[in-house]
Specification:
By secondary structure, the chain is an alpha+beta fold. It has twelve helices and 19 strands.
Length: 379
């Protein structure tokens, strides 16, 4: 069977490919461990920030394998995957759309051009001084890197003295949006959205609930906003992850990623809707039309565990949490004696808890109880 080329590696995608009987060739920046490598049909190493010529050469190397699809699995892999598809003559997300979905400056320009409510932005190339940035955007404001994910390099500034004299290359500033942060996950096939799910951020960067318990009018507004954003950025195929803010004036655009989300949202989607979202990602990339439900059977929620920096002294309560009603998974990656660094992005964790419930209130209560039962003590 023709292989699937994944740009980046994530376990859920590899598991799904094996269930579909599809061999996987992974394009990665660093070689995988021996256990993962043994499951792959091939590995190609390439720096994801390499220029287009490098990706044409990678495509030439892959051409002999006759790949059936090229799939981006991580934020850094979205543009490289688009370059590979273009070089191989495949459809899917174009290079131009991939750039808009990866570079927050281009992303915000496209959103504003489409008339979407969006934070005001100052780019480093605008050449404004720190005082001029504050005058334009007001306080608080948000400083972030133009390319990246998981909140790395993002900080809210409330004191004008903390605004740099000039924005560094690749840095941007945004006006602060006072709203409730949430997300929308979609599957798009041939320019049509065939699945859309709203996700509630119980604690942004820490805890999420699928699907979000929204009033019908709010849900309609959010999904319409997600659709407009998807069209504005030119996404015609694949999976998207939109982050938005709910405000009294309606949804405000945050960011849109053209790849599967992190934060354990993929297993939450699977548990809530009774579907394998990783299989759907691969089937859409392969040109198939997977069966996707229109409503959830139950509610699923996840909480990231991270004790803060320090040396782990003890881990307790894991088995007690696993025995609680509705608990689907409790994972702790650290043990006594392990040094834990600071949490600089949403992808960093010491463990996590996943639960399900019949209602949002029940799932949230179960999540709080299970997460509280797990104690990771650090010195």
């Amino acid at each position: 069977m023709r292989p699937v080329v994944t740009v980046g590696l994530r376990p859920g995608a590899l598991d799904a490919a094996e269930r579909l009987g599809r061999p996987v060739v992974a394009v990665v920046e660093k070689p995988p461990g021996p256990k993962t490598a043994a499951r792959l049909a091939g590995v190609v190493e390439a720096e994801f920030g390499a220029p287009p010529d490098r990706w044409r050469r990678v495509a030439d190397d892959l051409r002999a394998l006759d790949p059936a699809a090229v799939v981006a699995l991580t934020e850094r892999s979205v543009v490289p995957a688009a370059r590979l598809r273009h070089a191989l003559g495949m459809g899917g997300l174009t290079v131009e759309a991939a750039v808009r979905c990866s570079d927050k400056r281009a992303m915000k320009r496209a959103a504003r051009a489409a008339g979407l409510a969006c934070a005001d932005v100052v780019e480093a190339d605008d050449g404004l001084t720190g005082a001029e940035v504050v005058e334009r955007l007001g306080l608080p404001l948000v400083l972030k890197t133009a390319v990246g994910s998981g909140g790395r390099g993002t900080r809210i500034v409330v004191d004008p003295a903390d605004v740099p004299g000039r924005l560094a290359p690749g840095e941007m500033a945004e006006s602060f949006v006072d709203g409730v942060e949430m997300s929308v996950e979609t599957f798009v096939i041939d320019g049509e959205t065939v699945f859309a799910n709203p996700t509630a951020y119980l604690a942004p960067g820490w805890a999420s609930l699928v699907p979000a318990p929204l009033a019908p009018d709010v849900r309609d507004a959010v999904l319409a906003h997600a659709e407009a954003a998807r069209r504005a950025l030119g996404v015609t195929s694949g999976m998207t992850h939109l982050e938005a803010f709910l405000t009294p004036d309606g949804p405000v655009f945050g960011e849109l990623a053209a790849r599967p989300p992190g934060g354990h949202l993929m297993p939450l989607l699977g548990l809530a809707y009774g579907v394998d979202p990783w299989e759907a990602v691969l089937r859409v990339a392969l040109g198939e039309t997977p069966e996707l439900p229109t409503r959830a059977d139950r509610v699923a929620a996840a909480r990231i565990l991270h004790p803060g920096p320090g040396t782990v002294r003890a881990v307790e309560g894991v088995e007690a949490a696993r025995a609680m009603p509705g608990v689907e998974a409790v994972s702790v990656r650290v043990r006594a004696g392990v040094e834990v660094g600071p949490r600089e992005g949403t992808g960093q964790e010491a463990g996590h808890v996943i639960v399900t419930g019949a209602t949002a209130a029940q799932a949230e209560a179960r999540l709080a109880a299970a997460a509280a039962a797990v104690r990771i003590e650090v010195a």
